[in-house]
Amino acid sequence: MEKRAIRTPFFVVNPKAYLYGEKALELARCADRLAEQYDLDVFFTGQLVDLPALKRETKHLIITAQHMDGLRPGAGMGHVLPEALVEAGVQATFLNHAEHAMPFAKLAQAMARADELGILTIVCADTVEEARALAMLHPDIMVCEPTSLIGTGKVSGGDYMAATNEAVKSVSPHTLVLQAAGISTGEDVIRAIRSGADGTGGTSGIVAKPDPCAALEEMLTALHQIKEEGK
Amino acid sequence: MEKRAIRTPFFVVNPKAYLYGEKALELARCADRLAEQYDLDVFFTGQLVDLPALKRETKHLIITAQHMDGLRPGAGMGHVLPEALVEAGVQATFLNHAEHAMPFAKLAQAMARADELGILTIVCADTVEEARALAMLHPDIMVCEPTSLIGTGKVSGGDYMAATNEAVKSVSPHTLVLQAAGISTGEDVIRAIRSGADGTGGTSGIVAKPDPCAALEEMLTALHQIKEEGK
Amino acid sequence: MEKRAIRTPFFVVNPKAYLYGEKALELARCADRLAEQYDLDVFFTGQLVDLPALKRETKHLIITAQHMDGLRPGAGMGHVLPEALVEAGVQATFLNHAEHAMPFAKLAQAMARADELGILTIVCADTVEEARALAMLHPDIMVCEPTSLIGTGKVSGGDYMAATNEAVKSVSPHTLVLQAAGISTGEDVIRAIRSGADGTGGTSGIVAKPDPCAALEEMLTALHQIKEEGK
Amino acid sequence: MEKRAIRTPFFVVNPKAYLYGEKALELARCADRLAEQYDLDVFFTGQLVDLPALKRETKHLIITAQHMDGLRPGAGMGHVLPEALVEAGVQATFLNHAEHAMPFAKLAQAMARADELGILTIVCADTVEEARALAMLHPDIMVCEPTSLIGTGKVSGGDYMAATNEAVKSVSPHTLVLQAAGISTGEDVIRAIRSGADGTGGTSGIVAKPDPCAALEEMLTALHQIKEEGK
Question: b vs e for A136-164, b when ≥16 Cβ sit within 10 Å of the residue's Cβ?
Fold first, then answer.
């Protein structure tokens, strides 16, 4: 199956396990409205049980799993089956996040199954060396985020961003790069994209704000602005 | 929150990753009709993305996750959040299945969170020694199934069934015992319950049959019959 | 094979990965001299490659692995074979430490293999509930240590010590209890044993001191004193 | 530290957990004699507790761990510390064997630590895609072995050998390639090297033979012969 094409710069709203159910849906509706208003590609992740409702109640978001396994239909109690995601309308999945590290062979299998079924792969790397090696597996999107910064609100340094962008593109030119660590303002968004990233996104920079929808609006406004400038 | 009370003998339909989406829903509708007809408590597991539809489209089934993690709302990318299951209408979860083994401390945490939120726990053990130890954590249901028999279609021996039933009850009298390995006919169901089990269930004994609904009907008819005899 | 009998109160010197090679040997020689002088049972752990030298160059220590797997001779690349430990003179092993958590079934297997080969099992638990459940597997020694305190230098509260001691003994009267978190002075040793523990021990409370041998001497002197009082 | 240079074609004797203690030492003495006689570079793996004796009692073997972790001296109970291996005379380590799969980030860390300390890295891959990606981390040796063939006595097909050799060299020209699956005769050795591999080796093809030393002699004789032809 063909995968959905991604327009850059894109954004990923990743509420991890902070939001679920009605609260997740509420933020998704906000993201959906902003995605339409600014004509941006926005990924939105959620708990697996919430993904069907997120799909049903939004129109513009790319509904995204936070993890997927590489099994085929059959045994595999408690594992996340790629075919089930596809039938539920899920179009993308994170893989190998630092909080859900995968053995290398399992990661490679899950990526192969995603390619087979048309699921966009968003693969996480910590160091420049890791990003370069994982780029050999040609993920659709490579998330570059120093593990030590996750959840800290500190942004990656410009050197790290430049080095990982370059490392990924030199190995896999069609892989899009997402610079993620510590994005919590419109300015962070602009800095990440200006560093050469194809996309950016946030977790605590959004969900830990008093008004997550307003925080998201600030970031997507900035993303839209930098996109317009680039034309 | 209070947990749903379980009437014995009960049955668990566990399609693992064999069925998903519309096919899972189809078997669930069949199970729902049989649960009503025979007035039996029937658990039905599924892929997490399928659980909301299973909940919405059935009335009598106890919708059950195949795995759950013990985290609290917050970080924890890709982990299964208990609160999200509850809000989606999930009432029970398997834990520590041989195909999704959990570190002991993680299992204990997930059980504590389930108890806190009113989720029924269905915990898997392999040997008599394991069943006795895990019974100390007072699961609602203990699944006794020799790992070496999973998926083989061979039923556990009567000695194993008697020994695990006794081991669990001696430690945790209120824990219900599910004898599971290799159940694929009405006779297997009768033998498991007569061995002293509170419930039984199946995977490949159902989903690998040419007509899974008919296979399930044979098993639930047998369960109903033995229940009537017991009155 | 019969296991070595343990005299209480005992002590465990656990240098984790802080010490290795000659430095580990140096502390082991100090511990060996103190074990002889005070006629105490002292366990000493180390990197697996260091255990043969620790065995060869000491006379009184119980040489202890920090982890062991439950496999049998055969395949199992990179796993720690129980038979190999026995032939190397290792008499005990930690299992399920919070820094090396084991799936429950693997832990049960490793304990069964240790019992078969006469290796003393030192099994770690975090909460009272975990300690009670693991006690059903009858470890030789249960280490009770709140995971949140490991490496902090904070000692467990008296309530925790009393509750875990009681929980373990009520289920498995012959299992010895080791209270471990944050022991770094002779006073800590006395408090742990007075709480009802059969033994105690330390890591950073010893190896992070300017003079680890002196720190150990202070602790073993205290242990000896409380042992004498108990006569 | 500088790593030991490896002369090709080389051989790896990998007894996994089949042999330990005196039996492992016996085979190592045989391998040592053959390594000297044929002037070949021979790696020999073993249980960690056996490595010091293997080192002490042989002169020509490259003593090799079956797994190593990427930690630094400090906490990390039960993990294999690189510094401890070095001090014990270990010169190489397998990493990411299918029977001891590592999360990708942990593998990258362990490889970085090995490079820092002069330990040769022998990294395992299953598919061509995996081999190509892991080659980006520049292991000293890449083991190409279809996981499905491990322990079966079936050799990899010539296509697989050619494709993995090419994949590795195109990404990392200095990485040596070890073709491993199912080597159990001198002919298998010749076929693997003629396929373009830099080295080969065996487990069950050696240890499961009635006379492991004779089996090894047959293989090393073949390796020597093909080396002579290549001059």
Answer: bbbbbbbbbbbbebbeeeebbeeebbebb
